[in-house]
Amino acid sequence: MARMKFLCDADRCIECNACVTACKNENDVPWGINRRRVVTINDGKPGERSVSMACMHCTDAPCAAVCPVDCFYTTEDAVVLHSKELCIGCGYCFYACPFGAPQYPKVGNFGSRGKMDKCTYCAGGPEDDLSAAEQAAYGSNRLAEGKLPLCAEMCSTKALLAGDHEMISEIYKERVSKRGYGSGAWGWKTAYKETINV
Amino acid sequence: MSMTKEETRPDRRSFLKALSVGAAGASAVAGLATPVEAVAAESASDKRKKRYRETDHVKAFYRTNRY
C-alpha cells in the first residue's frame, strides 16, 4: 500500500522558499501560519544546508497521541489529518510535535489560540472531498484530484520529493548513486574547492 | 408621593420586561431565519479512504524527478 511521504534532498535545496509560498497560496493559509518553512543550517558559511520542513505525517504521530479531543486521524494513504470542528485549540499538539508543524492563528481574545492548522499533504480534511467547506477550512485537496502536494510539484531544483514512499526513496537512491553524498555532489568542488569537506 | 413612585415602578419594569422579551423574540426569529450551516462531513470510513492514485500527472512528477 502506498504511504505518502515527503523527502527533502538537502543537496539540492537552495532556500528559495517557493514551497512555502506555493503552500500558502494554494491552501489560503491564514496570516501568521506557515504550514511549510525552510530551515537553514550554517547560513552563509561553508557547508550551509537548507531543508524544507512541514508536517512529516508520522506513522505513530505524537500530536494524535496527546490530543484530548481525538481530532486527528490517519488516512489509508498514511496522511495525518485533523478536524477543525473538534479542535479546541489547547496547544498540546504544538508541544508534542518535534517539527513544530501544528500552528495557531492567534486571533482570539484573552490569549485563545483558535483552531490548529497544519500541513494536510494537500489532502483536505473530514469534510466532503473538493467541497467549498473543505476548501475554506483546510485548503485544496490535490490528492483527490489525482495530484501531489503543490510544494513538491513546483520545486524548481526538484529538491522536495513527495509521493509514494517506495517511489521517492528509489528516486533519491538513484540520485545518490550518481552524484554521491555531500562533497561528491555535482559542482561541489567547483563551488567550494577541494579543501572543504562536509 | 410614595403612591406615585409605586405607580411609576411597574411601568418602568414592564418597559424593561418588554425590552427583554422583544430582544429574546428577535434573537429567536433571527435564529430561525438564518439557515443552520450544514457542513457535509464524511463518515469515519470515508474520511480515511485512499485518495492517492498514480495518475499520468503523478507519473510525470516521478519521471521528471529522476534527473
Q: Can you give a write-up of this model?
A:
The complex is a heterodimer of chains A (198) and B (67). Chain A is of the alpha+beta class and 198 residues long. Chain A has a single domain (4-192), classed as Alpha-Beta Plaits, CATH 3.30.70. In chain A, 26% of the residues lie in helices and 13% in strands. In chain A, strand 2 (37-41) and strand 3 form a beta hairpin. The longest helix of chain A is centred in the C-terminal third of the chain and has 15 residues, at 165-179. Chain A is globular. Chain A starts with a strand and ends in a 6-residue tail after the last helix. The mean pLDDT of chain A is 90. With 67 residues, chain B is mainly α. Chain B has one domain (2-64). Chain B has three helices and no strands. Chain B is rod-shaped. The model of chain B is unreliable at 29-37 (pLDDT under 50). Chains A and B meet through strand 6 and helix 6 of A and helix 3 of B. Chain A: InterPro entries: 4Fe4S_Fe-S-bd, 4Fe4S_Fe_S_CS, ET_IronSulfur_Cluster-Binding. Chain A: GO terms for molecular function: 4 iron, 4 sulfur cluster binding; metal ion binding.
